[in-house]
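To: structure desk
From: M.T.
Subject: fold request, one chain
Message: Could you run this one when you get a chance? Sequence is below, nothing fancy, just the single chain.
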Amino acid sequence: MSKPNDIVTVPVIQGQVLGVNVYRGYARLRDLADMSQADIYDPKTNPTGTQRDLSPKHAKDAYDYVTSKDLGFWPEVFLCTRNSSVIAYESIGTPNNFGILKVDLSKIRAARPKIAISRVDGNHRLHYADGATEGYPPVEKLSSFCLAIGLTMDEEITLFRDINNNQRRMSTSHLDNVEVRLSGEELLKRQAPYLYIAKRLGDDTESPFQGRLYDGGKKAAQSLIPLRTLKTGIEYMFARPTKLTALPDIEAKYKIVRNYFNAVKKWVPEAWVDPKKYLVLRGAGLWGICFLGAEIIDQALGRGQYSVESMVKILKSGRNWDWTSEGAFQGFSGRGGASKIRDLIVAELADESGASIKELYSKIMSDGN
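Reply: Done. Structure tokens follow.
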């Protein structure tokens, strides 16, 4: 592959993909970035655009990946020719679908701001690859590409829609499980401690979550808790400085977290018998339990205790909550709903003096001084 006088020369195969005429080959990422542009949709300035707005973080992550990996992989970049004068194809014999594609960068630049070759799929991968942005040297590595020819704008937009609609998003729990398998236990403890705790809770025979986590692949039961959901909940539990976060060893942290969830099981045992009818193990309910864990564990450790029984005692010091789907926390969702669940429960808990925060609040407000 050469680039004399702004001509990118690439060996390609000419063919069709589901009725679309294309050239397919391999080129340097810097060249693919140079020859193409993203047609970003804007309802005011570019209402005919096809692409979503760029995420600089996503583009940086893509650049960091391709420049830091000795072994990596990307699906092919999909481009579309809108101005046929900027390319030329020469057959090199039998079979006649093998040939040389020449792309004239000088014509492409002269035509701008009109787009001669658009990016249908791969904008984030190409955004920093040309080296035009300070701090991002051009990427010389080869990547596969597919260049469509002879499409109308409506056809290009249709393909953009179809590509994105047909992609099934990877299960985040499956990705977390892959990370567990690739990292190994010791590395996971250091680099992904919340994932380590969540995964171990699903494997530990002394944990109430043993056998109840979904970590990708075939889902055996709808009542399983996604690994990512529990990992996120563990992150919420450690979100602010407490006596739990101050513990220097992850094994000690794990044991206390496991004790807490065993206490929750004793507090609301029916949720483990029929999880579909209760919110304790689902969505905002589970996250609310995790937020609550930071408070319960902090109280227990503050009293020099960490046993399951000591935490059950604290949980039961407040009111008896209705955790059914139609109960006290019906309609709560997301992190905000989870925080609200935590706040409502904590307000009813009694401290060592036997007074709840709610009772203390009433006393403070009724005090005339």
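Reply (cont.): The CA atoms of residues 99 and 144 lie 16 Å apart. Let me know if you need anything else for the meeting.
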